[in-house]
User: What shape does this take?
Amino acid sequence: MAEDIEKKRRRGLTTAFAATILATSLVLFTAGIIGTILLSVNEAVNNVKEKFAIDLFLNIDPKGQAPDSLVQAVKSIETVREVIYISPEQAKERMVEQNGEEFFSVLENNPIPPSLQVKLKPEAVNEEAMSDFESRVTDMLGEQLIEVSRQRNLQAEALRNINGIMLVLASVCGLFLFIVLVLVNVTFRLSVYSRRHLIKTMQLVGARRGYIRKPFLLQGLFIGFLSSVLANALLYAGIRQLSGNFAEILPEIGMEKLGILFIFVAALGIGIAVISTWFAVNRYLRAKTVDLL
Amino acid sequence: MPETAKIKMENVQIYQDKNLVLKNVGFEISDGEFVYMVGKTGSGKSSLLKTLYGELPLEEGTAHVAGFELNGLKTKQVPMLRRKIGIIFQDFQLLTDRTVGDNLAFVLRATGTTQKEEINKRIAEVLESVNLKTKLHKYPHELSGGEQQRVVVARALLNNPEVILADEPTGNLDPETSNEILRLLVNIAAKGTSVLLATHDYDLLRAYPSRTLICSNGILSEAQTR
Assistant: This one.
């Protein structure tokens, strides 16, 4: 009889423990999905931004060698990602591709000057940084530069749209992250709440607060860690499955960024578990016996 | 405080939350003295005991328990006070997730004993003193009410307390088991530990007459048992 009760008690404890881990894992998995969505969108936005080009038309001999020194000088600007020299011939080929042969058939000479096609790092693709680049490159190249050309209106419009989408997405993700924090916090507070009388009994026999807190915090740490591992495993499996089946649609997230995401999920899980446990235990350490009922 | 007085209160006002439940409380309990505190439910017995073990702050008056001055007692001093006193409750308050042995070991570890042999030896001693040597590996729910309360008495004895405070220790027990627990506490007092026992069971007073404090109409007064 007593053994049955003990078995039931142990089973109950195991179930409660497993339920806490499962609930925390699922909530952290949700946080991971939010992170993955943010990373994917950010990757897609970066892909778009990387296509934004600034053309520097040069006042140099059109038939001469590629101006390596100029290429290197422009590359030395920290916001520059890529610089390609485009000779008048290459520019003509591109134009013919875009507009057809007729455009040049009426001209005796190729009027396009040599140019440098510059692509900036994604974080520098915004109106302020691009204007800053323009003035720096104008000062740097002096008379060797004829004109800085870019599709100002189109780029500004695209950037406005991107910023709008990112703002909405960040707000939604922020809200979901807040929900995640609240859910994990509630899970751990409930876990401590169920053992509030235990805390009071420990206090009444003369245990110090730190001594009482320690096993609760260690358990919080363990549950947070285990839940993070489970959540990250689920997340990794999900990402692999999706990137295998929808490789053409989904932008590829680098392993480095995924690693940061997994660390973020683990830190979130362990952090909230320990902090929530800390506050919940402290609450019951301060509470009077009558407040525990 | 005289050397032999283990509990002393002077002009103490006992509050429960913001309500004054006992006023101008003054009494002393000497070394090895067994004292009852009687009164109706809500008369302030438990609040007085809670003040003595640091659960409620001492707002007015002066009080000493087992060498600790309760006026301005800091939160971090409370565990040290509780190591000098043993507390016994009506509802036992054992750690339900561990065995009798582990309940007792927890108290010893929490109060600074680290040697396993020392812990085992002390547990064996206190369990023998309450006649529960065979229940070491039982969980609280595997014991009867009387046995659980005897474990609580054993727990209270672990650190050789100077004072035992018992709050309705027989409230959940049948008369025969209540007598057993009371006999145990009287014997403990006879060995030199001061015992203050709050109860509203007057049969106990008749069975084991001793000095009695009465909580009534917001006042604590002395009574002489016959």
Summary: The beta strands of chain A are 53-58, 80-86, 115-120, 145-149. The CA atoms of residues 86 and 126 of chain A lie 24 Å apart. Residues 2-50 of chain A form the longest helix (49 residues).
